[in-house]
Specification:
alpha/beta, 11 strands, BirA Bifunctional Protein, domain 2, 5 helices, globular
């Protein structure tokens, strides 16, 4: 099957939701092919279906004063943060057409694809049993270091929402939340993990690595 990839640059969370809705409806009608949207968001906190109020450490008014929007969305997972320097991917994929009607398997596939991209960029990865997301495989701190968050939705076996890979995002943005409801994790980024090895065009390289992983597996 084919996979179209669209790199959109920075786009508001609201506009990205509207575009996903359009593409999901079109994919369910057979009017378009599977599509991966790659983009960045202005600062925004999103609350998934499993979000708990106590995991938002700063109220919405205070966040708005900082220029951070808040959205409740119909995806799995708890609370997360998006901001410039984070690579967000929204795969609109018909799992039914791929004979892969298993949401848990789809989550594991997303972890693997992000993991493949990380390895290509020189950062080893691992899973943490019981938690969804991608973690750095390096015993530098006592807490697991999370580098990518994942939360998905499915309509008629067509996927939406997806993943957020921290490239060179300001990690202070996560201070307003309990990321994904996990008190025991430390958020990290490609730039932090690579340190002095991080290239100036890290964002471009991250997009290319993620795109290659998805096109190889799903394209």
């Amino acid at each position: 099957m084919r996979l179209a990839v669209r790199e959109l640059g920075e786009i508001s969370y609201r506009d990205a939701l509207a575009l996903q809705d359009e593409l999901v409806a079109a994919r369910r009608r057979g009017a378009c092919e599977d599509t991966l949207l790659l983009l960045e968001h202005p600062p925004v906190v999103t609350l998934g279906r499993s979000a708990k109020g106590e995991h938002l450490l700063v109220d919405a008014d205070a966040l708005a004063a900082r220029g951070v929007a808040v959205h409740e969305v119909a995806r799995g997972g708890d609370v997360t943060y998006h901001g410039p320097g984070q690579l967000v991917g929204y795969p609109i994929v018909d799992l039914g057409a791929r004979d892969a009607r298993d949401v848990h398997a789809w989550l594991r596939t997303l972890e693997e694809l992000i993991g493949e991209a990380l390895v290509a960029l020189g950062v080893p990865w691992r899973r943490v049993p019981g938690w969804t997301g991608v973690f750095v495989d390096a015993p530098v701190s006592a807490r697991p270091r999370k580098i990518a968050s994942i939360g998905v939705g499915v309509r008629g076996w067509v996927t939406l929402h997806g993943f957020a890979l921290n490239v060179d995002v300001d990690l202070a943005g996560f201070d307003a939340i309990v990321p994904c409801g996990l008190h025991a994790v430390e958020m990290t980024s490609l730039a932090r993990e690579l340190g002095v090895r991080a290239p100036r065009d890290l964002g471009r390289q991250a997009r290319a690595a993620v795109r290659q992983a998805f096109e190889t597996r799903l394209g």
